[in-house]
Design a protein that fits this description.
- By secondary structure, the chain is mainly alpha-helical.
- The protein has 9 helices and no strands.
- The protein has helices at 2-7, 9-43, 48-60, 63-71, 80-105, 109-117, 122-152, 165-174, 177-208.
- Helix 7 (122-152) runs antiparallel to helix 9 and helix 8 (165-174) packs antiparallel against helix 9 (177-208).
- The chain starts with a helix and ends with a helix.
């Protein structure tokens, strides 16, 4: 096993970088979309049911089925990497939206009223009070989303987007455990690293809050 890893180290490294690029791009999009959506839910009650319902539905759709659906979407379906990033973004939205909404909604009403009494506008209240106090909860959602995305990204190889799933799928077709582990082990290590790193940041934020 170690010999196989050593002999294929260049390809494993390349596919790991591809995997990180797909997940990283999706996470940037998911945060850019999910955090504002979560904030909007705290301001517009009528949005809560449709937005959370849509995010829940995206989570329950099997990954291959979602890839198949996105394949028929203009522009997205034209390139495997675009399609994969879109799919990963959809999967990452629910924990980010939900935790943003929960974190901001959980701010002590007394703190919110005190801030309003000091003359803060709604935007100032959000930026100076609500977001800082809920940052740990929001980051916990990002942490969950990152781990989910790393796992789902292994399916990207099925549509030709690359990543560590290439080793897994080729290993399954060849009934080769070494190739399967060459994809599964680095993907698992990425998930552990993302979870541990974001967890450390989350704990530090809670300690300083």
């Amino acid at each position: 096993m170690l010999r196989f890893f050593y002999e294929n180290r260049a390809q494993i490294f390349e596919l790991t970088l591809e995997h990180m690029w797909l997940v990283g791009a999706a996470m940037v999009l998911a945060v850019a979309i999910g955090v504002p959506l979560g904030i909007a839910l705290t301001r517009r009650a009528w949005l809560r049911r449709p937005v959370l319902w849509g995010a829940n539905v995206a989570q329950t759709v099997p990954s291959l089925a979602l890839f198949g659906f996105l394949f028929s979407v203009p522009w997205l379906g034209a390139r495997a990497d675009r399609m994969t990033i879109a799919a990963l973004t959809l999967y990452a939205l629910l924990p980010i939206v939900r935790n943003t909404f929960t974190g901001i909604s959980g701010v002590d009403p007394a703190v919110r009223e005190a801030a309003r009494g000091m003359g803060l506008t709604d935007f100032q209240l959000l930026r100076q009070v609500e977001l800082p106090l809920s940052l740990g909860v929001i980051l916990a959602g990002v942490r969950v989303a990152a781990v989910i995305s790393i796992g789902v990204a292994t399916i990207a190889a099925a549509v030709g987007a690359g990543g560590l799933g290439e080793f897994i799928f080729s290993g399954l077709s060849m009934v080769n455990n070494q190739r399967i582990l060459a994809g599964a082990i680095p993907a698992a290590l990425l998930a552990v690293a993302a979870d541990s790193g974001l967890g450390l940041v989350e704990r530090r934020l809670k300690a300083h809050s």
